[in-house]
Structure formats: structure tokens, C-alpha cells
Amino acid sequence: MKSAFKGEQAKAVLSRWHDHFRGRLRVPTESRTVQTRVGDTHVLVGGPEAAPNVVVLHGALASSAHVLHELAPLLEQFRLHAVDVVCQSVKSADVRPSVANNAYGEWLRDVLDGLALQRPHVVPARCSQLHRHLLA
Q1: Is residue 62 a contact partner of residue 53, using CB atoms and an 8 Å limit?
Q2: Nearest 5°: CA angle at 109, between 107 and 115?
Q3: What are the pLDDT digits (tens) for 18-34?
Q4: 69: helix, coil or strand?
Q5: pTM exceeding 0.85
């Protein structure tokens, strides 16, 4: 299966950006890994434990840290679970589920089950687009 990234150097750049944005967060976060049918999925969790759960999905070639940085004010009132989307973030499995069937939906169901979230709010967030030269 072909990677979504142009190579290890591109992955390293994206990994450094993830670390950079996570380091700028003013709220503690927890890094979790959830096993799914397509491979491991990384999730960055922050916000009050007793707050309402919100699952956030980042845009193309971004990451959980990017989206949490952009949505930082929400971390005061919500428990955000920022999911590193497979094949879009270097923090999760580099596999491409089919878009011709329900593979992405099944993957997300696995993520929600792995996080033990029954009926969270789910928000697709649009992050600032990263450089196109990192795309394969």
C-alpha cells in the first residue's frame, strides 16, 4: 500500500509540527493509542475529565495537536478527544481505508469503542492546510 507521505523526511517534518503545536498547548494532554481494524490510531485528550466529551477530527495532513491548538478555548469546558486520522497524520497507521464503502465509519466506530465513548459529539475541524509538497 502506498504511503500518503512523500517519504521519511516528510513524516519527520509533520512529526516535528505535531510536537511544536502540542508544546504550545497551555492545558495538559494525554496521549492514547487505540487499536482499530486498520491499525493503531493516536488520540490526544485534554480538558476536564467530568466535562462533556467531544471527538474532533482534523483536516488533511494535520494532527491532533494542530486541531487542539486551534480549538484551545474549548479545552476549558469540554473533554476533547482529538483523533489522528489514519493516513492523514504521522501519529496513526499509514493505511488508506476505502472511501467507496463504510471503512472510515467502521474505523471511527473502533476509535469510539476504544475510547469507551458511547454518544460523544463529533466535530470535523478544518485546520490550516500544510504544505502540498508533503503530499504523495
Answers
A1: no
A2: 105
A3: 788 888 888 899 999 99
A4: helix
A5: no
